[in-house]
Write a structure and sequence with these properties.
2 domains; alpha/beta; 2-enoyl-CoA Hydratase, Chain A, domain 1; eight-stranded mixed sheet
């Protein structure tokens, strides 16, 4: 199993055991005691990973969601799909590299894939604006969704962004308007839509491709109206309170599944998706194929009606509690 090069402070017990495993494996021995010691340390390593990652604090979850070795949209395109033909440009301004779109095939299904891309190298990250799409990125995404609807192809969206690009140029070109338009058009798109938060799901940048029949997230991803740093800056006037903000936002998979914001949580490999891309891709493919089997073949109006009801019902628990309090 690969060892992550980037480690967090809370992973120190894991790192120590991984170092022991590497030392024991580097000194092969036919001695029965040595082999038993290696097996024991590997068991301890698995138990430690399970214990640490099943009890992550919200801020620790944010750190894992931002892990530089975490699989990105292009990784899933290579590992999950059989074919991918990229489509470029929004026919208005340019081609935003923070938003990738194209035709793909998965297990016999022809689909349209749309996803944020952060980039792996420094050069790629600069070109992709660290996954923060401009208005042309969202216009490109919407144009490709409409193309998919024309040919009755399901749409798969991979969400991984801290938020839409906040620069002056993006605002001048209608950032807020285009995100709102995407949400409106996705709510009535007559074809199946599957949205999955694979890392960061921040603000309107995530919602711009986040309205679907199935909305899921990976176990250690986060999905929120704002980043913890942004929330801390507004409430406490300092990003140093990001950890407290992360806890207050209730943005982890456990919270959001309980609140009904997401439909499913896709379990990650032991120790996080960044430790085993292939296993994570296998789980992703299994989930996507299951959803496609469920959604493909349903009437377009049925899909749209269910999608509308799904999002309208969010917050019903809070409304019910308020109503009860008013009656009392």
């Amino acid at each position: 199993m690969p060892v992550a090069n980037h480690r967090f402070g809370f992973e120190r017990p894991i790192s120590e055991l991984e170092a022991q495993v590497q030392t024991l494996e580097a000194s092969p021995s036919d001695d029965a005691e040595a082999r038993e010691e290696l097996r024991r340390v590997k068991r301890d390593l698995a138990d430690t990973k399970r214990r640490v990652y099943s009890n992550l604090a919200p801020w620790e979850t944010v750190q894992v969601a931002r892990h530089p070795e975490r699989p990105m949209t292009t990784d899933y395109l290579n590992l999950v799909f059989d074919e991918f033909v990229e489509l470029h440009g929004d026919k208005f301004f340019g081609d935003d590299r923070a938003m990738r779109t194209g035709f793909a095939k998965i297990d016999g299904y022809k689909v349209m894939v749309i996803g944020h891309q952060k980039g792996k190298t420094t050069k790629e990250r600069i070109a992709c604006y660290h996954g923060c799409a401009h208005p042309e990125g969202y216009r490109k995404a919407l144009a490709k969704m409409k193309l998919a609807a024309k040919y009755q192809l399901p749409v798969i969206c991979f969400i991984d962004t801290p938020g839409a690009y906040p620069g002056i140029g993006a605002e001048e070109r209608g950032q807020a308007q285009v995100i709102a338009q995407n949400m409106f058009e996705m709510s009535r798109l007559p074809t199946p839509i599957i949205c999955i938060v694979i890392g960061e799901g921040g603000s309107g940048g995530a919602l711009g491709i986040g309205v679907g029949d199935k909305v899921a997230m990976l176990e250690h991803a986060y999905y929120s109206v704002i980043s913890p740093e942004g929330c801390a800056g507004i409430l406490w006037k300092s990003s140093t309170y990001a950890e407290q903000a992360a806890a207050a936002l209730k943005m982890t998979s456990k919270h959001l599944l309980g609140l009904g914001v997401v439909d499913d949580v896709i379990e990650e490999p032991l120790g996080g998706a960044h430790r085993d891309h292939h296993q994570m891709a296998a789980r992703m493919k299994m989930y996507l194929v299951k959803c496609l089997k469920e959604l493909v073949g349903q009437k377009s109006q049925t899909l749209v009606d269910k999608r509308y009801d799904k999002f309208r019902q969010m917050g019903v628990f809070l409304e019910a509690a308020m109503a009860e309090g008013t009656e009392a």
